[in-house]
Amino acid sequence: MSLVTVLRIIVLITTISWADSLVPLPAGSSQQTPFQVNKLTLEFVEKFRQQMARGFPLLDLPVLAPFTWKELHLNDFNNNILRLSAKLNDGITRGLDVFDVTALNVQISDRKLDFQLTFPSLQTNGRYVAKGQLAGFVPFDRSGKCSLQLRGLTMHGTVVFDLWRRYLFVRDVRVSFAVKSSQVEFENVMLLPWNTFLFNRIVSGQIPEYLRSNRNAIVMKIRTKIRSKLNEILWKYDVPDIIRIINATVSTG
Predict the structure, then answer these.
(1) Domains in the chain: how many in total?
(2) Which positions make up the signal peptide (predicted)?
(3) What's 243's domain CATH number?
(4) Which pLDDT tens digit goes with each residue over 129-154?
(5) Please, which residues bridge with residue 162 across strands?
(6) 3-state secondary structure of 198
């Protein structure tokens, strides 16, 4: 999934969490209860899930089920067993619309949203161009078909936001990922079948470990890169605009 797409998804989740004013208030109530706010947000997330196969053209958000992407870079990976630089091209990812909202807490008074999504299985297929060295002495420089399956992928996020007039802006954002297991297949990445098997086993095992060992660095890197870009997207639409677009897209989709 491209960075811009991830950003827009976070924008949608952040924006709909602010939409508690759309829920009819019980008689005598002056503000929404936490239960009502979370319930409203879950309803919008479900609408978003239903629309993923059609996309949100008015928000320039593409079809996400399945999601097609052009390229992804992996630069200078080195764990002393495997040294690898690769580019993945013309990929398609399936399973993004199959997820559980395992945690959701909107704190309007603190301007904070905590969420956790769990994807049982994500399957990606595409092509690769890769070069590097296996076990310190077996070089490779190959291209071909590739596939990646992630099982039990968890996305945990915290967004701290505020409102200026009718616009949201993000004060802080933290997103981390964990995965229970992964299976990678780079076809014919090595000349010998046994070396290809060994390469794929090593890469498959390294993905969960890499996410665990580098969690804080990944969180900070995402925070540095996307906070300003989130706000660039948010400033294009005020809150009522986005809510109207979401509702109009779902009702006509």
Answers:
(1) 1
(2) 1-19
(3) 3.15.10.30
(4) 999 998 878 899 999 999 999 999 99
(5) 169
(6) helix
